[in-house]
Structure prediction request, 228 residues.
Amino acid sequence: MRSNRTGILWAILVVVVLACGVWLWRDEAKTLVESVMDALRVAGPAAFFGAMAVLPLAGFPLSPFTLAAGPVFGPQMGAGWVIVCAIVAVAVNVAVSYWLAAKALRPLVIWLLGKLDKKLPDVGARSPWELTLILRVVPGTPFFLQSYLLGLARVPFGIYLLVSVLVPSIYISVAVLAGDAIGRGDRKTLAAAGVLFAVVGLGMHLLRKKIQRKLRARKEAAAPATKE
Prediction:
């Protein structure tokens, strides 16, 4: 009991320290992201999309790439090719993230949890489709952390890759179309992208609610059997 309390206290302390660090260095982090993005724009599409595949592995946010790709490279490459390159970059990123979490980092995580008398959660009884969808659809968790959590859980790679590429691809496509339209001053395409974004957002919201209801009903159905 005492070791559990100690582990919880240490976990709380780590979270508090990280939160304070993020708050104290938020301006510096924002400046760093902006400077990196400026350098990548100048370097060209190969460096930009290569960095889009690699930098999020270390926690660099994916959203600046998504928002910048359309207006920066749309006029020279065309929105279609920008979308293709961005999706390929995301596919490479999530594939490498899965390998890092499931192979390279998993023994370390298991060892650290063992020191706290904890274990990785057993997800064998849950649907890997539901687990992957709910983590990818529900906002709040950073994209790179979603990938590492799913890799640690070792959901089937095919399911992981399909959902992990498909969900962000929808948002990427809309963002690139909107950014390209802004760069070209195309109001009609921008309006269409806005409508499409609203439809996608509503669809994701309904999907999230459906999965959550399904999981809640399953939990309630299993509760009597657990008590017995």
Notes: The longest helix spans residues 187-227.
